[in-house]
Amino acid sequence: MPKPFDKLTANAAPIMRTNIDTDVIIRIERLVGNSIRGTLGKWAFGSLRYLPDGSENPAFILNREPYRQAEILVTGPNFGCGSSREGAVWSLQEMGIRAIIGSGFGDIFFANCFQNGILPIVVDKAIVDSLAADIEATQGAGKVSIDLEAQTIVSPSGKRHTFEIDPRRREGLLQGLDEVALTLQRDNEIRAFQSADRAVRPWIHFAGKSA
Amino acid sequence: MEKPGRTMLAKIWEQHVVTRISEDTDLLHIDRHLLHDLGGSRGLLDLKGRGLKVHSPELTFATPDHAISTAQGRAGTSKIGLELLASLRVETSASGIQLFDVDQPGQGIVHVIGPELGLSLPGCTIVCGDSHTCTHGGLGALAFGIGSSELTHVLATQVLIQRRPRTMRVRFEGKLPLGVTAKDLILALIGRVGAAGGTGYAVEYAGSAIRGLSIEGRLTVCNLSIELGAKMGMVAPDEKTFEFLRGRPYAPQGEMWDRAVSAWRQLPSDPDAIFDKEVVIDVEKIIPQVTWGISPEHVIGIDGYIPDPQMVDDPARRAAIETALDYMGLKGGMPIAGTPVDWVFIGSCTNSRMSDLRAAAEIARGRKVAAGVRAWIVPGSENVKREAIAEGLDKVFIEAGFEWREPGCSMCLAANGETVGPGQRSVSTSNRNFVGRQGPRARTHLASPASAAAAAIAGAIADVRTMGR
């Protein structure tokens, strides 16, 4: 069950490259296995974060103080594009990320964030750029505040931005709702749908049994 | 006032609404849930941990593809890969889920076997914990990739909470020029609209060129929908679709077949349906495509030049090109053709079906893979493998110096240890040229099966049009 999200004031790190895909966020070999949860934080952004010899790449923003403490990422267009691997979200979460602000996200990554209590915020690119500039002006020391209830972001210099969010997603995050448990409360409706549908589209429900 | 026409998306969607959750969000019934070795048993174990049972095991199907070795005899499957396979066997069996196991007809890349077995049907909803689930849209299905949490949700409930996407129609019009394939069409589209051009949309591919494609070609087009940002892509079913599906093991038979086909004929978008966005592509202007960078949108025609960052004014774009060229070890302003390659990979859910292998074999027949190039053929499924062997394609490839392998995802995502080495360059028929996708620091160029075969023979990125027969 995801942890509720309401307000967050934290360091933020701009990672502004376009099209950071989920393979870059977490490499596939880290995701092979059924006991990977809790092992992924150190491998997030591996190809950017580490040099070929395994040492930290000092040029990568999350290897520098105070960005290392960031709980918020400010990202370039199409962050999280690519694969459906939820390990991308888990790895960010395990390195302490709780919210991501960008002008657009990969559709599946975006959905996966909510499932884990991470808030992805979509705002105009101009706002993303202004936030990134504000953060960089403080060398990362200035904090960004997010208020999900009020749907606002406040930059380190005090600029206030509002954002839109699907009301259902917002409610889910505020309360830390478990979607599976909620949907199971509707199981009568699901079974009624299936029962009616068996008459309309029997080929769906009796696959391979019609021969 | 007359009711406005409906899109195929709307028709399929409405037929699956169990209940409305909010103004734009529905609880959607899922007709087919496909599991694979990378996330399948994890989902089933997650469910067990919550004390829940699989809601509709008869609508759930599994096969190992991601983490198994594609070497002969599956030699070299990693310890963890073997554990995942064992776990998939135990957990599917315990839940009453049909498993298409290694070496059995039916096993293969999950997006190859769905259509091949007739599990994927027009008008059905299909999900899988894999972003290339959009492939099945080539049959007129509403198919999309999901993450682990949604996977568990479907196992537990057989429904998903989904927000209705916006709609985009892409019309490919005209006759395919020499050497141009389904792969080239979709790569050209991604080059045009960008890797985020389809974000938030369900895409319907239409137009004379799509109608003219084989079903396998349509599957290839839909496969790359996610690379333009759209998690769903689809093609309206037609007579070709019905002929493709007729007689497949899990397709309806007899009287039920006739009922299904009449239902499927109602699915195509109405002529007056309105899409939120329309794109028209003149197919006759497309030539074989190849990527040069680290996103599928970094694509050019085979006669094109690698972008020169010095010629780009926008600093962000210039930096992006410089980053890509630096990773790829390429120089801006140079022709892409003639770039030497170390690896050729022909396979993946994009391009591993019979028509793909035939196209590659046509180029390979009677020729030799260039010295210093390793070239792999990884058929998409056990059935594809057997059919190709029956046609003698394996011999064509082996005689030409290709390695003929067992079905699986292999070097497309390199989850099974099958990788392109650091700094090495590959021409691949797969779907992603991301940083490290085929292995740490591997350099990937995406292309069609014929173009990939041409690169294997030439030892360099090559124009397949000069290698025809």
Written overview of the protein:
The complex is a heterodimer of chains A (211) and B (469). Chain A is built from 9 helices and 7 strands, in the order E-H-H-E-H-E-H-E-H-E-E-E-H-H-H-H. Chain A is of the alpha/beta class and 211 residues long. In chain A, strands 4-3-2-1-5-6-7 form a 7-stranded mixed beta sheet. The longest helix of chain A is centred in the last third of the chain and has 14 residues, at 187-200. Chain B is α/β, with parallel strands linked by helices. Chain B has 2 domains: 8-277, Aconitase, domain 3; 290-466, Aconitase, domain 3. Chain B has 15 helices and 19 strands. In chain B, the strands form 5 sheets. Chain B has a 5-stranded parallel beta sheet. In chain B, helix 6 links the parallel strand 9 and strand 10 (201-206). In chain B, helix 2 (40-49) crosses helix 5 (148-157), helix 6 (182-193) packs parallel to helix 8 and helix 12 runs parallel beside helix 15. Chain B is globular and about 55 Å long. The mean pLDDT of chain B is 97. At the A-B interface, helix 4, helix 7, helix 8 and helix 9 of A face strand 1, strand 2, helix 2, helix 3 and helix 5 of B.
